[in-house]
Design goal:
heterodimer; A: alpha/beta; Rossmann fold; 2 domains; seven-stranded mixed β-sheet; five-stranded mixed β-sheet; 12 helices; 14 strands; globular; B: Rossmann fold; five-stranded parallel β-sheet; 7 strands; disordered N terminus; pyruvate dehydrogenase (acetyl-transferring) activity (chain B); Pyruvate dehydrogenase E1 component alpha subunit (chain B)
Chain lengths: 323, 345
């Protein structure tokens, strides 16, 4: 069936909430309004205000309350309307949620999901367009999922809602309206496993979230020129499935990492470093980062678009690496 | 020091047990300070609650099994008053295997799910919003339990407190916010941190049952806690500020150069342990009886030091345990990673 990314997320919440009475959503506008991007639209009619808890605009306390509720035995889905607001919640997320199991000697975990969304695409400006996954990936104790497809939007969220540890689940605002033909009844890959979206002999593209689509688009374009790319969708950044990356890079010897986030000290930097360390003897070229510029995002549509990689930059980089 | 107790110590037969609990806290704090100075304590920071015993014992008296709580960085007394085993506490502060958190938490990150202790916190105000979530669950389950956040006057200037109080009031949650106002946030006196020193007024503005009580007499704290907790169990969240004085420095080694000797002398007159002892004498208990009780406590707390020193260090490989749940993917240790990466042909 044809399904939109947004609707797949909503369906995942509905199915999970029907199955597990301890799951509840908590955040700004999740109930009556139905979510800023419509993901929780209509849920309040089935599940009531007790399970779609509308909150005041208090991001730190939303995350903090979710931590307490998780410790008390429920499974909250806290929603942060934009990942840009994560700075407000850094203490509750990184000092509390991430460390509680460890600090307390394994006595208790914090099985919560923090749903949020990031990325460019809506001319939303410097404070509503960032890709801040590195903040999360840099904090031990947090799992991190970033679905790039409709199928993964559904299944990664279902899997996130079964994890024993806190999961930050970053959707992409540019994908909500994207529809794909999917069969949700196909069992998903194991949590934490990457998926090879396309196999090719000439270069490996490692990416996640919306950049999957740009990589695939570039790969199709390159195929017409006789360059065949492997495209790896990481799906989760923690756990990180490096085995899949290694298996693809070793026989080819050329790799690029594609990420929308600012390049310096970002996820792409970490992945490039790992590939270089682990696959050094197999590499023919430097592992190139195709990442966001180290600048804030503008409201101007043109400047916004120019701030992150697009299919053309991906394709051009691949051409040069393969040449 | 004069006081005006609405309850009246003379009539109360439980005072001896409250005195005992307060004396246990004071003696524990004394011993943990000793452990620290001897270099047997793992943490580089140690915050003692001497002078604040009535807040811990007085408030915890209103709590029952199944109630949950979080504390601040000066929370040893509260945990003891909720029934903590002083041996396991001392061992945790010493960073030892037999500690409550197997040596990973220490003084400021100690917790025990069995006793409802959702965790001490080294971030000022960091543990406050968790009680909102825990109370949301208690309310949903209709189990009659409350969740209590204990913190110091320093946290009164943290925004998270107001977000949390607002939510607790908005949702009629069984929550109590307990501010142990020892007058000092590290080296900054309360009046140097805020103009609004009538702390409970802030909570009242959010719609909480809010009071300030003098911590000199534990019976006053008990009476106030009973009122506030009764309201919370019925769905009106509460706030209680307990006025007391931090007898010593911010940390064990802090000699408090930022306050005068006179200030300390006057402050230490607000001594809830001494006050209770004098009241017990006035009730007809004799010095010898109380001395015997003190001696018993001294022996109990002395033993915690021996227990801690005898407890093993955690095994090095436990370092990688409990980052994630058992059986979940774990990070590769850096040392083995380096070895693997460099083992090239």
């Amino acid at each position: 069936m044809k399904l939109a990314y947004r609707d797949a997320l909503r369906q995942a919440l509905i199915d999970a909430m029907r199955e597990d009475p301890d799951i509840f959503a908590i955040g700004e506008e999740v109930g009556r309004y139905g979510g800023a991007y419509g993901v929780t639209k209509g849920l309040i009619e089935e599940f009531g205000a007790e399970r779609l808890v509308d909150t005041p605009i208090s991001e730190p306390a939303i995350v903090g309350a979710a931590v307490g509720a998780a410790m008390a035995g429920m499974r909250p889905v806290a929603e942060l309307m934009y990942v840009d607001f994560v700075g407000m919640t850094m203490d509750q997320l990184c000092n509390q949620a991430a460390k509680i199991r460890y600090m307390f000697g394994g006595q208790i975990g914090v099985p919560m999901v923090l749903r949020t969304q990031g990325g460019i695409g809506r001319s939303a400006g410097a404070q509503h367009s960032q890709s801040l996954e590195a903040y999360v990936m840099h904090t031990p104790g947090l799992r991190l999922a970033m679905p790039g497809t409709v199928y993964d939007a559904y299944h990664l969220l279902r899997q996130a809602l079964k994890q024993p540890d806190p999961v930050v689940f970053i959707e992409h605002k540019g994908l909500y309206a994207m529809s794909e033909e999917v069969d949700l009844s196909v069992p998903p890959p194991e949590w934490g496993k990457a998926v090879v979206r396309r196999e090719g002999r000439d270069i490996v593209m490692v990416t996640y979230s919306r950049q999957i689509h740009y990589a695939m688009q570039a790969a199709e374009e390159l195929a017409a020129e006789g360059i065949e790319a492997t495209v790896i969708d990481l799906r989760t950044l923690n756990p990180l499935d490096f085995d899949t990356i290694r298996a693809a890079v070793e026989p080819i010897g050329k790799a690029m990492v594609i990420s929308e986030a600012a390049m310096t000290a970002g996820v792409a930097a970490e992945l490039a470093a790992r590939i270089t360390e682990e696959c050094f003897d197999f590499l023919e070229d430097p592992v190139v980062r195709v990442a966001g510029e180290d600048i804030p995002i503008s409201v101007s549509v043109e400047l916004e678009k120019g701030s992150v990689p697009g299919p053309a930059l991906v394709a051009q980089t691949a051409r040069e690496l393969v040449a | 020091m004069n006081k005006d107790s609405p309850v009246g110590l003379q009539s109360n037969t439980n005072l001896l047990s409250y005195y005992r609990e307060m004396q246990r806290i004071r003696t524990f704090e004394d011993r943990v300070g000793e452990l620290y100075l001897r270099g047997e304590s793992a943490g580089s920071m140690l915050h003692l609650s001497i002078g604040e015993e009535s807040a811990a014992v007085g408030f915890c008296n209103a709590m029952t099994d199944g109630d949950t709580f979080t504390t601040h960085h000066r929370g040893h007394g509260i945990f003891l008053a909720r029934g903590a085993d002083p041996n396991r506490m001392m061992a945790e502060i010493g960073g030892k295997e037999d500690g409550y958190c197997r040596g990973k938490g220490g003084s400021m990150q100690i917790a025990d799910m069995g006793l409802g202790h959702l965790g001490a916190n080294a971030i000022v105000g960091g543990g406050i919003p968790a009680v909102v979530g825990a109370a949301l669950v208690a309310k949903r389950r209709g189990n009659g339990k409350i969740s209590v956040a204990f913190f110091g006057d320093g946290a009164m200037q943290q925004g998270i407190l107001y977000e949390s109080m607002n939510m607790a009031a908005l949702w009629d949650l069984p929550v109590v916010f307990v501010c142990i106002n020892n007058q000092w946030g590290m080296g900054t006196r309360i009046d140097q941190a805020t103009k609004a020193t009538k702390l409970h007024e802030r909570a009242a503005a959010f719609g909480l049952n809010a009071e300030t009580v003098n911590g000199l007499d534990v019976m006053d704290v008990i009476a106030a806690a009973d009122r506030i907790v009764e309201g919370a169990r019925a769905g009106t969240p509460g706030f209680l500020a307990v006025d007391c004085f931090r007898f010593y420095g911010h940390g064990r080694k802090d000699k408090s150069p930022y306050r005068t000797e006179e200030e300390e002398t006057v402050g230490r007159q607000k001594d809830p342990v001494k006050f209770a002892r004098e009241a017990l004498i006035a009730q007809g208990h004799d010095e010898a009886e109380l001395d015997a009780l003190d001696k018993e406590i001294t022996e109990e707390m002395d033993a915690t030091i021996d227990f801690t020193i005898a407890s093993p260090e955690p095994a090095l490989d436990t370092m990688f345990q409990d980052v994630y749940a058992p059986g979940q993917p774990v990070p590769e240790p850096v040392r083995s990673r380096i070895e693997r990466v460099l083992a090239r042909e």
